[in-house]
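Reopening this one. Same input as before:
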Amino acid sequence: NLFLPAMYVAITSVNIEVNRLEISLAAATSREGVPYPVFLETLLMLIVIDFVTEAGLRLPKTISSTVTMVGGVVLGQAIIQAHIVSNLLVIVVAITAITNFIVVDYQMGLVQRILKYFTVIGATVAGILGIAFICACLIIYASCLESFGAPYLTSMWPKKKQPGTS
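Same output, byte for byte:
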């Protein structure tokens, strides 16, 4: 969820040599006629899918799933036919949108949706290395946090007592 759009940007625009030739050719073929660079089309699609998700959350429960599903399908088809984004990116963003609903807590899901943009920026600047840098920054930040007086990344298992101590 967090790294999939960034991996798409890194592999299709910065680290092209990582792919096999067939995959690179398929990605280039799906991008044929798309006027925007990979970074802008990914950003555009992530923003659109976040708007659809937020609209679904604010609608009544009886129609929200229908509106988000139909909205996603209609928007995806229209965007592909207008050659605004590539087919492969629509698949990547659809998988990302589906995995957004795995996170039950709204606040945590919102944090992930915001962090997605930072990982895409990191992938645009330095490719896979940029994604690794953003991941390292997130781990360093989480290691500095405290929750109820205990470090956030502390193990949940109790510490073993050393022999000879009480």
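So the earlier flakiness isn't reproducible anymore. For the record, The chain has a mean pLDDT of 86.
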